[in-house]
Amino acid sequence: MSGRVLVGVKRVIDYAVKIRVKPDKTGVVTDGVKHSMNPFCEIAVEEAVRLREKKLMKEVIAVSCGPQQCQETIRTALAMGADRGIHVEVSGKDYENLGPLQVSKIMAALAKKEEASLVIVGKQAIDGDCNQTGQMTAALLDWPQGTFASEVSVDGDGLKVEREIDGGLESVRIKMPAVVTTDLRLNEPRYATLPNIMKAKKKKIASVKPADLGVELTSRLEILAVEDPPQRQSGVKVEHLVEDCPVASPSTLGIEVGGVLCCRGGTCLSSQYTVITAGLD
Amino acid sequence: MAFAGKLLTRASLGSYICRTRGLTANRVHRRHVVSCIDPSLGLTDEQKEFQKVAFDFAANEMAPHMAEWDEKEMFPVDTMRKAAQLGFGGIYVQQETGGSGLSRLDTSIIFEALSTGCVSTTAYISIHNMCAWMIDSFGSEEQRHRYCPQLCSMEKFASYCLTEPGSGSDAASLLTTAKRDGDHYVLNGSKAFISGAGDTDVYVVMCRTGDKGAKGISCLVVEKGTPGLGFGKKERKVGWNSQPTRAVIFEDCAVPVANRLGEEGQGFTIAMKGLNGGRINIASCSLGAAHASVLLARDHLKVRKQFGEPLSNSQFLQFKLAEMATRLVASRLMVRQAALALQEERQDAVTLCSMAKLFATDECFTICNQSLQMHGGYGYLKDYAVQQFVRDIRVHQILEGTNEVMRMIVSRNLLQE
Fold first, then answer.
1. Are A113 and A148 in contact (CB under 8 A)?
2. Who's near A153: CB < 8 A, 6+ residues apart?
């Protein structure tokens, strides 16, 4: 086992920013908008660095795919403790069409090239919300995967991963090399310290092109339109539930509000309650 | 909002306020969609990283508690130690003695960002930094290694003791005496308005070892627990409540000569050099508060409606907001320029620091005050952060050299020769 961990980090629009759709509906406004590292990627970097600090892994490599600005994101990973960075240069139209499949191909190629023992990525990015990259990378490499990890520990020559699933928590043992995707509760990412930020300046970021890795980037997906979600309609506020109403019957039921059927707007048929129609701003 | 009364009872409005305040506190720190007042404009990548850590720390570790620290007058030792772990305990102290070895400009950027989380705590951290720097710069090798590492990690906290009941602006007329007695000095006298006093461990004290005037003053480091070192009652203040302020009283307090920084008679120079940086730091704290207040005002104007429209449609308020933003950027430029001049040891550094402190503290107070006004009645409630920014930075126009003394320094420079 090489003890090398490959961590994918994605530069996304900062989570606190209010997203605006471009007037031509081809996407969202990114120019001049504050970007930062995807929160799940921060958790991935933190986990990788912790594994190295526990001496279970030897080297943490941060990878990001995109234009020049991605180097900022890699630097943040370096400031958190990653040892070196790889910037996969993708720009222009290629970057607009960059999706999980393309990134997975790149990650798989890098994992082989760097002889990584472990690939850790965030479970999803907060812009695409695809939740595919980790899984596709594992498939391309034919490696086992531990997704939605809320706990990761080394178990012999493999990993024990506790996964957050719909029914609760699931523990799996997977052999290495493997792919892990991080969920929210895996850890709390550290702040970069001032000395680490300064040390990060000296750490190397290598630049590669997808072609150098034998990856071609054509996308099989075409984005037709990006639109705002529908405007919020006025709601109806009701003061009582159908179960409590002495006179409501299936034939008098009118409006559905939040899954509850109640009297028609304006007049409560039992004349006991006031139905308020509220415009919500 | 002319609803039937039920939806808008005072209680529900109160909870709306508190929830909004929590949200705005976070929005204040994270949400700089590029605008003209973005404090990261013009910085190097590395400085942006420093600033990001400081903003994140302020948003996560300080802002949620700033009201409680103010109300309960809590000295947040644990939070400050967390900050020290990130390197904020001795930002411009050299690395070999445990500091971060950064420049004055880096320091200004960091304090400005931290201040958006809590002005009072950040201001204390800056005073602590100033004391650590004084020891690092003027102390012997032995003294530097004895004190600085523990100060940089905030294992120990420091206080700067210059002002006395009888000497504020006229600092050089201080009366606390230090009489040489073998290998000790015996201190008698008292200091007033000392930030952190009583809760801190290391006191950097300017005292008289010689004749009248500045040349008779020396600088001694006094440790808590030294017999004869006592404290007055904790003062009740309008702001800066997350740091205790007390008088420091010396009654035949014996301090080893080995604790003297530099030579006898050098104390006043050391004190003033410390204050040059201190003034930039305090001005930076004002910048942070003003920045936070402008964002709070902007958000409030967008949300609050009167006469059927959001307040942000009012030209008067738009213009007022623009003026506030302009003052903020002007102040920031002055402070950062002064920081650069100081780190480059330019001739005009001292005067520039005084100008920057004068300008920025005055302007930023006006900005915070105007932001409070824009909030209307809500601005006066302690549920809203803006009043704490106003109260906390009011004192920046007074300490580390009153703004009147800043004028003295500038006019003296202009009228010399």
1. no
2. A159, A160
**pTM of this structure:** 0.85
Note whether B316 contacts A: Cβ–Cβ < 8 A.
no
Contacts of A18 in chain B (CB under 8 A): 31, 33
Nearest CA in chain A to B36: A32
Helix/strand/coil for B256 = strand
Restricting to B residues 33-62, those with a Cβ less than 8 Å away from any Cβ of A are 33-34, 45-46, 48-50, 52-53, 56-57
Chain B residue numbers with beta carbons less than 8 Å from the beta carbon of A197 are 46, 49-50, 53
**Pick from A14, A194, A278: CB nearest B50:** A194
Whole-complex ipTM: 0.84
Q: Give the tens place of pLDDT for each residue, A122-144.
A: 999 999 999 999 999 999 999 99
Is the separation of the CB atoms in B228 and B254 below 8 Å?
Answer: yes
Chain A interface mutation, best of B49, B52, B306, highest count of A Cβ atoms under 10 Å: B49
Question: Nearest-CA neighbor of B55 among A255, A266, A16, A278?
Answer: A16
Tell me, what's the pLDDT at A239?
59
Q: Encode pLDDT of B218-252 as tens digits.
A: 999 999 999 999 999 999 999 999 999 999 999 99
Cα(B212)–Cα(B197) distance, integer angstroms = 26
Report all structural domains of chain A as residue ranges with CATH numbers, in order of start. Answer: 4-213 (3.40.50.620), 230-281 (no CATH)
